[in-house]
Each structure stands twice: as C-alpha cells, then as structure tokens.
Amino acid sequence: MRFHHIFIYVALIGIIKLLRKSGEVEFFNKSGWFFVIIILVCLGGSLSAGFAILQAYSLIPSSGYIRYWKPLPRLHVEGRYIKNEAGQIVNLTGFNFADLGYPQQAFGDLGSWDGSLARCWRYGPPDINPNMVTAQQVADYMASKWREFGVNSVRVWLNWYTWRNLEEWTRTYYPFPGYIPSIDAIVSASAKNGIYVILSFLEVQSKEFNGVWNTPETFKVEWINFLRELATRYKDEPAVAAIEIINEPKPDQWRSAEAFYSAALEASQAIRNITPDTMIFIETGLQVQPRWTGIDPYLIDNPIHTQVSNVVYVFHRYYWQTYTYRSRASPNYADKGPMLPADLDYPATYQQGNYALAKQQMEQVWYDELLFVLERGYALWYGEFGFNENYLDPNPGWQYSKGEPAWQTALNDKLQLCNKYGVGWSYLYWGPGDANVYGMLLTNAQGYYTSYKEPKARIIRDNIIPLPPSP
User: What CA–CA distance (Å, rounded) separates 279 from 298?
Assistant: First the structure.
C-alpha cells in the first residue's frame, strides 16, 4: 500500500469517526457508505477487504446489518433495573406495534402480500400514493411519529410463519420476501429516531399443533432455532434492546410451569451464546383461563436471571382486573383464587368514585402479586395492557358500566404505579382505535391514521419517562 493510500485511508476513517461523534442521528447516508466502501476496496483490493476495514473500526457490525446512524447506548440489567452504559436507569416506556405479528387479522385476506410493511400504508406518510409507498418510508414515518409522541421504546410483534415463508393458517409454503426487510426497516427507523425495539415472538395457538409444529418437542426445537436467527441478525444493533422469547406461553404447549421455564432457560442460553448484550425478556407465568398474571411460584424458586445475564421478566394485565388473586403472604399462594377479596376490589372502588382508596387497593394487589419480587432483584416490565373505554372489564361477572372519569383515573394511576416502582411499560397498541378497542389512533377521510384518541393519548404521553441524556 502506497503512502498516499494510507493517507486517504486514515482521513476517511477520521472523518467518519468525527461524524459519528458529532451526535447527528443519521450521520451518513447510504450512498455515502457505497462511496466509502469503493474507496476502501481500492485500498484493500477486494469488497471483503473493504468491509473488513470498516468492521475492524466498528463502523459497521459484523452481522452484516449495516448501520449508518449513531448507535444508541447499549442497555443491560443491573439488579432490578435496566441501565445504560453510563449506569443510568432506563425505563422503557412506549407502545406495542402488532400488525406484523398477526398479519391475517390485521390485513384480512393476504392475497398477493409479499410480507412488506408497505401494506401498513395507513400509518403514513399520507403524502405518498399507497400503491407506491415502500416499507422503509412507512417505518421512517411511524418512527418519527413515535419520537414526536415521546416514547422511548416499541414492542414489535413477530410472526414465525411469515418469517419462514409459511402461510399461518395452513402452514404451507407461501413467499413473503418482504417480511424480514420490513422488520429491518422498523429497527433502523426506530434506531435513527432514538427508540429502542423489543422483538417479541408471537405464541403458537393450541389449534396450531399440527402441520409444522405437531409436538411440543418439535415446537421447542424450531422455536429456539428462530430465536438464534433473531439473535444473530440483530446482535450488533444496540437499538434492539431485547428479544422476548415468547408471548403468553400456553399450558397446552408446555404442560407445566417447570416444562416452560426449563425450556425458557435453554432458549435464553442459546441467545446468550450468540450475544452477551441483547436483553432477554421472559413471561412471568403460563396464560390460563381465568387468566392470572402474577409471578409463577416455580419461577420464584427457580429464577432464570441468576443463571443467565440481562434477563427481564414480563407480565401482562388487561382491563382493571387481575381475574384471580394470590397473596404472597397466604399459605395457599400456589392456589388461584377466583376473584379479588372485597376489601381489595379496586375496580368497584374506582367505579364508585373513591379514587384515592382505589389507588391504594390497586397498589396492594399489584405488590402482593407482582412487585414484591423487585426486592429480590427481579427486573420487571409491563409488556401489554389496554383500556376498553366501554367498561372496566368486559369479562363475565366483572362488567361495570362505562365511567369515563373512572377509567381515565385508573389508567393514570396504573402508569404512575409502574413509574413509582421503576417498572417500564408498553401500551397496546399503536393502531386503529374506536370505542370498542384498545388502539389509540383515529383515521381521516382518506383512511390514514392522522390523529390520536383522547384523552387516552394524553394520559399515556404524560406518564412517559424520557431516556436519560446520552453519556
């Protein structure tokens, strides 16, 4: 290599380093990278040499997922808290984005859909013909709206079938070449806008134990292989803060808590063998009917975070009710109770308008069922919740008449309770909303989601905890 080649090489590396250090969100465009690679190919003699030089200086990740923006700080788990590289506590607060998790439900007949996020054109941008919009344009516009709203994280639902080019309901081959690039688009758009991503593996329904996953053991093997794919693809992208190994695990898949948490440990170790950094999110209990969303006793006696680093436990709790109640002080803690005791019936107390007492009751129930493990060093995250404005809870036996001040107060109290204990949260969901669903977006005459459902959006916005300043 001649002297002037060395000079050009050092100058290029220096310029890129300075651009990254400047703090610009998008410090180099894609065409700029092609220019740099071409120059480095001339210096190194081959395309692989050009990439090797960039990777050696941490300018692109070794996974091949090219980053052309300033990376977010890596997050990790320390005791009961999620923290950044400077040791500052980070409360991940934001939304669920669900459309790519259940595309058949989101879009109806998939028809000739190729898996692209472009099918989600209603999310914008509204000034581009929906027949011409690209997945990256939709992702960039959505992420800019997330940043404008103030959230710092988004939980993205992933559909295994679509990722693997299988039609969900028949498990037969169907080409979805646009699906993985669309997940990449959401990740890159979020990263450029300073938003962390939690990638969540959607559960396999009980009716789907035929076709590709016809036994629990087959499911476990394929499931862990999929998690390895995710970990490998995004291990060098700090914006992918976590992989949630499975959403709402079902008893008919795992048969017992011991079976699930043993498999969860195996899956976590498989991820950790690929990446030491990406956090692992694990649900706190099997989803049963009536649904209980506390901490499974087996998990208390057999914690995973003492065996695998950077583990966070996830719980879901919808409406205002807990469905069943277990007191940690009760000798029958392992037995599910049918409903709340009268002196802790906070949904009824909210409906009666005694908001101060209702908030105290809610906190007591939450602490008894969930929050007491914080003292034992468990990190918790509230992965899903939503409010149906028609009632507190539409389940039989728990229907209360609509009361707008009541549900608004309860939603605000719930978020304040999370923030008080340092538990991050993700509202369900960033999607269409009306009086009967949990979404928070409203459509205009052209069908675009251009406004927010109030006062829900205001309550959520007021409780978001911003990321700490970059170290």
Answer: 22
CA distance 341 to 344: 5
Owning domain of residue 25: 3-56
Please name every residue paired with 78 in a beta bridge, in sequence order, or none if there are none: 81
Q: How many domains does the chain have?
A: 2
Residue 412 has pLDDT above 90, yes or no: yes
CATH of the domain at 279: 3.20.20.80
User: Looking only at Cα atoms, what is the longest distance across the chain?
Assistant: 83
The pLDDT assigned to 233 comes to 96
| Residue 92 within a domain | yes
Is residue 64 situated within a structural domain?
no
Nearest to 361, CA basis, from 414, 412, 427: 414
Quick one: 380 and 454 in the same domain? Answer: yes
- Specify whether 31 is located in the same domain as 121: no
Token digits of residue 336 = 């599910």
What percentage of the chain carries pLDDT values higher than 70? Answer: 69
- 231 and 266: one domain? yes
Please report the DSSP string for 237-286 in residue order.
Answer: -TTEEEEE--SS--HHHHSSHHHHHHHHHHHHHHHHHH-SSSEEEEESS-
Question: Helix count (H) and strand count (E) of the chain?
Answer: 15, 12
Given a contact cutoff of 8 angstroms between Cβ atoms, the answer to whether 382 and 419 are in contact is no
Tell me how far the alpha carbon of residue 346 is from its chain's centroid. 29
Question: In 370-421, where does DSSP find H-type helix?
Answer: 404-421
- Residues sharing a CB contact under 8 Å with residue 287, sequence separation 6 or more, in sequence order: 248, 249, 250, 251, 316
Q: What is the spatial distance between Cα 173 and Cα 420, in angstroms, rounded to a whole number?
A: 48
The answer to whether 405 and 117 have CB atoms below 8 angstroms apart is no
Whether residue 187 is found in the same domain as residue 287: yes
Residue 382 is assigned to a structural domain of this protein: yes
Clarify whether residues 112 and 235 are in a common domain.
yes
For the stretch 113-166, pLDDT in tens is 888 999 999 999 999 999 899 999 999 999 999 999 999 999 999 988 888 887
pLDDT above 50 for 230: yes
With contact defined as beta carbons under 8 Å apart, do 242 and 193 qualify? no
pLDDT, one tens digit per residue, over 28-48 is 344 455 555 555 555 555 544
Distance, CA of 49 to CA of 220 (rounded, Å):
39
Of the given ranges (28-37, 107-116, 214-223), which has the lowest mean pLDDT? 28-37
In a domain, 246, yes or no: yes
Q: Does one domain contain both 216 and 365?
A: yes
Residues 45 and 98 in one domain: no
Please indicate, yes or no, whether residues 97 and 42 belong to a single structural domain of this protein. no
**Quick check: 258 pLDDT over 70?**
yes
